[in-house]
Task: inverse folding
């Protein structure tokens, strides 16, 4: 059964959502998972791409921006289209909607930013997953 973790940001720190995505990806990568990060747009994917290069001073997260014809073998892929790369195990969703390919993942991390539009979209996603009887956990992030 799919495990869905909701990360609810309680602060308005600039780029907090992207930093949290990097933290989740880093943890999952160190646990040997293959990770797909779903962004809302190409620009958002490129911003996250840049952040993953500088996320840690001593290293970077091995990643690539996913395009439908890519042959990258990086364990972390960042995409923004309605098609995800195959053989990924963890989905980090940074979009306001559930991507159509969500069922191919074992685990899903939903990141909800601290504003009214994001909160309402997060509630809708939560309701959807609950109706599907997925395992749900909520984590409130205060820092």
Result:
């Amino acid at each position: 059964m799919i495990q869905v973790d909701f990360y609810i940001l309680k602060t308005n720190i600039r780029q907090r959502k992207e930093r949290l995505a990097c933290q989740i990806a880093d943890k999952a990568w160190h646990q040997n998972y293959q990770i797909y990060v779903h962004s809302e747009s190409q620009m958002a994917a490129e911003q996250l791409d840049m952040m993953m290069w500088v996320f840690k001073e001593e290293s970077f997260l091995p990643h690539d921006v996913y395009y439908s014809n890519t042959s990258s073998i990086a364990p972390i892929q960042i995409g923004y289209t309605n098609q995800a790369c195959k053989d990924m195990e963890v989905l980090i969703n940074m979009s306001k909607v559930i991507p159509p390919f969500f069922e191919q993942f074992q685990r899903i991390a939903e990141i909800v930013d601290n504003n009214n539009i994001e909160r309402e979209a997060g509630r809708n996603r939560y309701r959807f997953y609950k109706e599907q009887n997925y395992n749900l956990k909520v984590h409130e992030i205060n820092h």
